[in-house]
Amino acid sequence: MNMDCAPSTALDASAATSDYPGNLFVVAAPSGAGKSSLVKALLELDAQVQLSVSHTTRAPRGQERHGREYFFVSDAEFDAMIAAGAFVEWANVHGHRYGTSRRAIEERIASGADVILEIDWQGALQIRRAFANAVLIFILPPSWEELRARLLRRGEDRPEVIALRLRNAAEEMAHAHEFDYVIINEVFERALFDLKAIVHAQRLRYVAQRRLRPEIFSALNIS
Ligand code: 5GP
User: Fold this and answer.
1) Which ligand 1 atom sits closest to the C-alpha of 94?
2) pLDDT value at 19 more than 90
3) Which residue has its alpha carbon closest to ligand 1 atom 21?
4) Closest ligand 1 atom, CA of 96?
5) Of 141, 137, 142, which is closest to residue 33 (Cα–Cα)?
6) Taking a C-beta distance cutoff of 8 angstroms, is the pair 116, 41 a contact?
7) Complete domains list, the chain, with CATH
8) pLDDT for the residue 5
9) Is the dihedral of CA 47, 69, 108, 184 positive or negative?
10) Per-residue pLDDT reduced to its tens digit, 42-56
């Protein structure tokens, strides 16, 4: 995997200590682990969670639409966004560049929405440096056999692309230990339950509850 990504010096250190009312969830996984299906199901169930739509230099696949799965941009447009400091993180994944708009995230978590990012491990670690409270979730497949079978079933990629994704999967999974939570996507409904549980637990944190229900805390004389 090409390791190009945004230098950490480009990050805004002030953001790391900011205390936004919304939560930031970052989900990473090797291709085929079921990350997109899980996130899609969560979004359908929970209107408070919003998906961050990344920019990418790769071409659209299948039914993908500009502005829905990704903002599809040229190399020149991507370069211009880097130069303008528009990305909170970006990385080169499978030979294409992908980046997350800083403004889109900040505006939404500042307004109290929860934002979820589906990005690779390099981006996830950059997000943690920029947003110290980000919750990093790694999704694992139950086995190599199942991962290969899911990539083949998807039927969207050429055989050489599938081979590249499998080679990259080992490197992606080698970073799972740097994440806060791991979900093993063996049975979809169970994995979705786990994802919902993580989101729910985050909303029960002391600071979140105090912000949501200040009247109860003051009536109980709790600071
Ligand atoms: P795909 O081309 O299959 O949609 O995505 C390939 C990989 O790029 C996936 O691991 C996906 O999570 C990652 N990716 C998508 N958007 C971003 C992004 O904005 N930043 C980073 N670092 N990775 C991304």
Assistant:
1) 6
2) no
3) 119
4) 2
5) 141
6) no
7) 5-219 (3.40.50.300)
8) 66
9) positive
10) 999 999 999 999 999
d(Cα 55, Cα 39) in Å, to the nearest integer?
18
Asked if residue 80 has pLDDT above 80, the reply is yes
As given in the structure block, the two tokens for residue 216 are 């109860």
The strand pair at 181-184 and 135-140 is best described as parallel
Tell me how far the alpha carbon of residue 31 lies from the centroid of ligand 1, in angstroms: 9
Residue nearest to atom 16 of ligand 1 (CA): 119
Residue 2 above 60 pLDDT?
no
The reply, when asked if residue 40 is annotated as ligand binding, is no
- For the residues 194-200, what does the mean pLDDT come to? 98
Q: Report the predicted TM-score, pTM, of the whole model to 2 decimal places.
A: 0.90
What would the two tokens of residue 111 be?
């307004």
Alpha carbon of 36 to ligand 1 centroid (Å)? 10
Which atom of ligand 1 sits closest to the CA of residue 123? 22
Say whether 197 counts as a known binding-site residue.
no
Nearest CA to ligand 1 atom 10: 120
